Amino acid sequence: MADFRNFINGQWIATGKTFENRNPADNSLVGMVHEAGQAEVDAAVQAARAALQGPWGSLKVQQRVDLLHAIVDGIDKRFDEFLEAEIKDTGKPRRLASHLDIPRGAANFKIFADLIRNVPGESFGMDTPDGGRALNYAVRAPRGVIGVICPWNLPLLLMTWKVGPALACGNTVVVKPSEDTPATATLLGEIMNDVGVPHGVYNVVHGFGPESAGEYLTAHPGVDGITFTGETRTGEAIMTAAAKGLRPVSLELGGKNPGIVFADADFDKAVAGIARSTFENTGQVCLGTERVYVQRPIFERFVAALKARAESFRMGDPFDDDVDFGPLVSLKHREKVLSYYEKARKEGATVVTGGGVPGMTGPLADGAWVQPTIWTGLPETSPVIREEIFGPCCHIQPFDTEDEVIRMANETPYGLAATVWTQDLSAAHRLGAALNVGLCWINSWFLRDLRTAFGGARQSGIGREGGVHSLEFYTEMRNVCVKL
Ligand SMILES: NC(=O)c1ccc[n+]([C@@H]2O[C@H](COP(=O)([O-])OP(=O)(O)OC[C@H]3O[C@@H](n4cnc5c(N)ncnc54)[C@H](O)[C@@H]3O)[C@@H](O)[C@H]2O)c1
Ligand SMILES: O=C/C=C/C=C(\O)C(=O)O
């Protein structure tokens, strides 16, 4: 049975308070997680502070780059261990975790190692009032100790998406993984020790949010900045905590993303694209589609085609390579998703497919399984269409004109992502400009160039991370003006 301890100053720290970690595929007990209290969080922050003033703080850029590449190699070498840990924690199929989660865990260190080696600086020469000259140049310094708070849907990917740039910029981190998925953040601690990252640079404290490690971390005065990925409501609580001591935040939050299909779209690609953006990772991707808008001439045909896709998924043991649809992350999250399935039914939605729990057999019968689900016939004001469900479900609404669908798509407090399918180039660019989101994919979805700005508008987040954009949060910029 696994024993998920805190990782503080390079040491594995047990506490007297543990909680269960269960495999959502069959609800079997994977191990026990040691909950960090105030003392452990304080020790982690102190260790991170000390590391800044130790060897880590005086490394040359190339030495940091070499260490980041060693972490990449370390993850690659233990790929199968990360894969097993992630699948047991989340229930996601091996075919997904092996192509997305674990490779991105390594890529998120590599991209920022490359960035800090090559990023250009900024300087300005100026004429001065006395007829002379002066030179201005920018200096970037690490922000300091960064609190990293992560969600459960893409645990390694989303944690390293923050730890990669934080370390590349010379910071130190205290990571608080989701209580549902402690495994890969813990395993990364072994890699850090194996490759010689100085103790205290990377720390992991386990626990929950309120009155637990999450809250203790965001409230700790020794934390210089907080990067958070999770629900919008949680983002509000973290931003409130960060306000004390004026710590900056980077927030990647919730969404209720539209998928828009025009009649002129490549039909088969649009069906495949919307099926992926709706059902991949059992609908537990923040960028995923829960609102589909299809132009009326192809509406009926599209609904039938997406239904066929949803009914073609193969559920089963996530370790089985033939399986392409796993459980939700927990029985608790399944209750939330099923409550929306019930809400849709009560509101009189047409249940095109799904709407319940599949009949799993053997040990899988105890897992957090739900049916992929498609609805039509609800008004845009329905909570099913307004609120984030974060499950394998979508509502399909017909539309007639471009203006009408832009209005409907933008009618949400969120603004994270959109996916648009059309072969009309001008329409594609008009939609890209008109949709109030941080990320708009045209004839594609979740295609990621890690140099691009990533983040949400409105209640989907604050700030952008990715490529040079990450420097804004993970460094402090100083302007030096030299009179010549
Ligand atoms: N925008 C993005 O890039 C992105 C990516 C993935 C997930 N998400 C969002 O995350 C949500 C699903 O993940 P989740 O259920 O883990 O989110 P969550 O907000 O419930 O929890 C996220 C993390 O925050 C911690 N936390 C909770 N309350 C806290 C508090 N008061 N103080 C400090 N920490 C606290 C949790 O323990 C967990 O580690 C969805 O809304 C999804 O849209 C967004
Ligand atoms: O569930 C949300 C997915 C977020 C993905 C990223 O942050 C990324 O691809 O960098």
Structural account:
- α5 (101-118) runs parallel beside α6 (155-168).
- The chain has helices spanning 38-52, 61-77, 79-90, 94-97, 101-118, 155-168, 183-195, 213-219, 232-243, 267-279, 299-310, 331-346, 383-386, 402-410, 425-434, 469-474; strands spanning 2-4, 6-8, 11-13, 18-23, 28-34, 123-127, 133-142, 145-149, 172-176, 202-204, 225-229, 249-252, 257-261, 289-295, 350-353, 373-376, 393-399, 417-421, 439-442, 461-462, 475-483.
- The longest helix is centred in the first third of the chain and has 18 residues, at 101-118.
- The protein is globular, with a radius of gyration of 23 Å.
- The protein is α/β, with parallel strands linked by helices and 484 residues long.
- The protein has two domains: 2-253 and 458-483, Aldehyde Dehydrogenase, Chain A, domain 1; 257-442, Aldehyde Dehydrogenase, Chain A, domain 2 (3-Layer(aba) Sandwich).
- The protein is 38% helix and 22% strand.
Summarize the structure.
Its EC number is 1.2.1.85. With 484 residues, this protein is of the alpha/beta class. The protein is built from 16 helices and 21 strands.
Structure keywords:
484 residues; alpha/beta; Aldehyde Dehydrogenase, Chain A, domain 1; Aldehyde Dehydrogenase, Chain A, domain 2; 2 domains; seven-stranded mixed β-sheet; six-stranded mixed β-sheet; 16 helices; 38% helix; 22% strand; globular; binds nicotinamide-adenine-dinucleotide; binds (2E,4E)-2-hydroxy-6-oxohexa-2,4-dienoic acid
